[in-house]
Structure formats: C-alpha cells, structure tokens
C-alpha cells in the first residue's frame, strides 16, 4: 500500500513549489513547465504535477540549465582592484580579500587567484565543488584576459601564442589570441583566452614573445562576464549565471562518471 493509504504524508516537496521558491517562476508557470517536459530531475524529464523531490539531494534543471536549490550557497563576482592580493589574509599586511568576503555575510573564499597587479573578474563562493571545477585546469574552464602590452603585436606572434611557448615550468599554449583595436603609442591590446591556472601565466607568455604586459584585466571566467562592474565592486551572481555555473559542475561530474 502507498504511504497515503496508511495516512502517512508523502515524502519530499512538490516540484512546482520548490521551483517557485527557487525563483524560477510562479508556481502556476512552473506547473506549465513540468507539463511541457521542460523540467528534469536527476537527469530525467518529469511531466507529472504530483512529483515530489528532496531539495537537499535532488538535482533539477529547467531547459537544460541547473537550478540552485541550496540557498545556503553563495556565489559572488568581484572586480578585483589593482594592489589587492588574492588571499583572505596576507602575512605582509598588503590589502587582501577579507573586506570583500566580510560584505558577503557568509564565509566565502576566492576561486583561483589573480596577481596583485592584475584586475578583473574573481569569483567568491562557499561552494567547494564548484570552486574545484572552476579552478582545476583538467576541467578546461576558459578564462579571457585583455592585456595592454608594449610594442606592436603581429599575426606571427599571435600564431606563436596559439601554437605554444616554452616557459621555465613547461610549455603552454593559448586557446585563442587576437588583437583588439589598432595598436597605438607603441602599445597593443591583446585578448588571450586559456584554461591554465599557472601563476602569472598570461604575463609570462607575453613576456616570452617579447611584449611585456603594462596592464592586465580578466574579463571572462567560464560563462561569467565582468560587464560594467566597477573596480572594487562586488555583486551576487544572477540566477542565470548561477545556473550556468552549476550546469558546468554537473557536466563535469557526469564526465567523471562516464570515464570510470
């Protein structure tokens, strides 16, 4: 007999209620999404309005984009200003990330690092699994930088960056490299995309090809774009941005399962 027949309440929460609480849409609209087959639970399409789930363990996505059900997790974007080290506490007394983390109201940590003189997009979160996927080069999450360098960069130099250069700690190649705008005043702006997390890697690559970096900013990290966020400013990621990041994590987990 079913639990209802014994007078026991069914376990879990109604899917449409969970989705509405997560801010996907109103409960009625979420019901429509379910009927239309746009919702998956643990990778399987659900079309029954009576479906119940456990928000603590079940994975839900809408139109293939993951939904954040754990409201204890925080995801923030910081435009790290120049002179700030990517650490929660600096033993040399330099400005660090502690004051930004304090604004979050939760205990969050930076995902990866930017050197003190590099500005731009840094993710702060208390989601350890997400941090691992974003930071570890084996998952291939791309990062895009805009580098203002000395000299006029040629097509041959860009090709060399894409083909790979030899550094003290081994070879490295950019996934993509292109010139942005026209060189001016003996300077060129180069956009470099790569998935390596090695220390000061963009600066070292460009120095190796004869174009020392004057200014460096990270504009993109995976699906996240810095946009118009000002230097030293921080904001919560949007639901769409969080969904894109969680989708990355779930795809990575699925790949690990497939490779076993």
How would you describe the overall organization of this protein?
This protein folds into 2 domains: 3-66, Structural Genomics Hypothetical 15.5 Kd Protein In mrcA-pckA Intergenic Region, Chain A (Roll); 75-234, Pseudouridine synthase. The two termini are 39 Å apart. Mean pLDDT is 91; it is low at 1-5. Strands 7, 8, 9, 10, 13, 14, 15, 16 and 17 form a 9-stranded mixed sheet that branches. Strands 3-2-5-6 form a 4-stranded antiparallel sheet. Strands 1-4 form a two-stranded antiparallel ribbon. α1 (15-21) crosses α2 (27-35) and α4 (128-135) packs across α7. It has helices at residues 15-21, 27-35, 98-104, 128-135, 155-163, 201-208, 239-259, and strands at residues 13-14, 39-41, 44-46, 52-53, 60-62, 65-66, 75-80, 109-111, 119-125, 143-150, 165-167, 170-172, 176-184, 187-194, 213-221, 224-225, 234-236. With 260 residues, it is α+β, with helices and mostly antiparallel strands.
């Amino acid at each position: 007999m079913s639990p209802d027949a014994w007078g026991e309440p069914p376990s879990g929460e109604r899917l449409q209620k969970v989705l509405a609480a997560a801010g996907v849409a109103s409960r009625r609209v979420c019901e429509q999404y379910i009927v239309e087959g746009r919702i998956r639970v643990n990778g399987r399409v659900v079309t029954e309005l009576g479906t119940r789930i456990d928000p603590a363990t079940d994975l839900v996505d809408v139109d293939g984009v993951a939904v954040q059900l754990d409201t204890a997790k925080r995801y923030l974007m910081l435009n790290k200003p120049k002179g700030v080290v990517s650490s929660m506490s600096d033993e040399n007394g330099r400005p660090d990330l502690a004051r930004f983390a304090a604004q979050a109201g939760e205990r969050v940590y930076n995902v990866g690092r930017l050197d003190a003189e590099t500005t731009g997009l840094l993710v702060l979160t208390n989601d350890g699994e997400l941090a691992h996927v974003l930071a570890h080069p084996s998952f291939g999450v791309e990062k895009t930088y805009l580098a203002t360098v000395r000299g006029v960069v040629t097509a041959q130099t860009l090709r060399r960056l894409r083909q790979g250069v030899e550094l003290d700690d081994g070879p490295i190649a950019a996934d993509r490299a292109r010139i942005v705008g026209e060189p001016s005043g003996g300077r060129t702006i180069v956009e470099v995309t790569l998935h390596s997390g090695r220390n000061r890697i963009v600066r070292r690559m460009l120095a190796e090809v004869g174009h020392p970096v004057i200014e460096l900013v990270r504009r993109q990290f995976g699906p996240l774009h810095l946009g118009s966020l000002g230097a030293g400013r921080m904001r919560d990621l949007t639901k769409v941005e969080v969904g894109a990041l969680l989708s990355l994590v779930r795809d990575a987990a699925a790949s690990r399962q497939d490779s076993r």
